[in-house]
Design brief:
By secondary structure, the protein is an all-alpha fold. The protein has seven helices and two strands; from the N terminus they run αααββαααα. It is 48% helix and 3% strand. The chain starts with a helix and ends in an 8-residue tail after the last helix.
C-alpha cells in the first residue's frame, strides 16, 4: 500500500536528521562514495549516488541527472523549517524513496547505530540519516 503524501512528509522530516551543509560536506567525502551497493556500469557510483531525473515544476527547475543525496540537500535548503506546506509536488517522489530506503535499512541492520564506520551507517548518511544522531 502506498503511503499518502502527508505521511511521507512526516516520516521524511523525522528520518532525515542531517542539516543541508552537513549532508553536503559528507557527500564530498571519500567514505560517502564508497558506501552502499555498487552499480554494475562504467560510473562506479553506488546506488545512493545514483542519478535520478526529475520533472521540472512551475516554481523552479531542477537540474536533470541530479544525485540522490544532492536532491535531499536541495529539498532541505528550500525548506529548512520542514514546513509541510512548502514542499513541491516534485519533491514527494524522492522523499518517498528516501523514507523507504531509510526505514528498510534501519529495520534490517542494527549495526549502523553501533558502528559509525560500518558500510550501513555510511550508506544511511548518503540518504540524510545519521544513525549516531537518532
Amino acid at each position: 500500500m502506498v503511503k499518502d503524501d502527508q505521511t511521507v512528509i512526516e516520516e521524511f522530516s523525522e528520518l532525515v536528521n542531517m542539516e543541508p551543509g552537513e549532508l553536503e560536506a559528507w557527500l564530498k567525502e571519500e567514505d560517502s562514495a564508497g558506501a552502499g551497493w555498487k552499480k554494475v556500469d562504467v560510473t562506479g557510483e553506488t546506488v545512493g549516488h545514483e542519478r535520478y531525473a526529475l520533472a521540472q515544476s512551475e516554481e523552479r527547475s531542477i537540474r536533470l541527472s541530479s544525485y540522490s543525496g544532492r536532491m535531499i540537500v536541495d529539498i532541505l535548503k528550500r525548506n529548512p523549517s520542514k514546513d509541510p506546506e512548502k514542499y513541491d509536488e516534485a519533491d514527494i517522489p524522492h522523499m518517498r524513496k528516501v523514507v523507504a530506503y531509510c526505514k528498510r535499512h534501519l529495520a534490517q541492520e542494527g549495526k549502523a547505530k553501533q558502528d559509525p564506520d560500518s558500510k550501513s551507517a555510511k550508506s544511511l548518511k548518503n540518504w540524510g540519516h545519521n544513525p549516531q544522531k537518532a
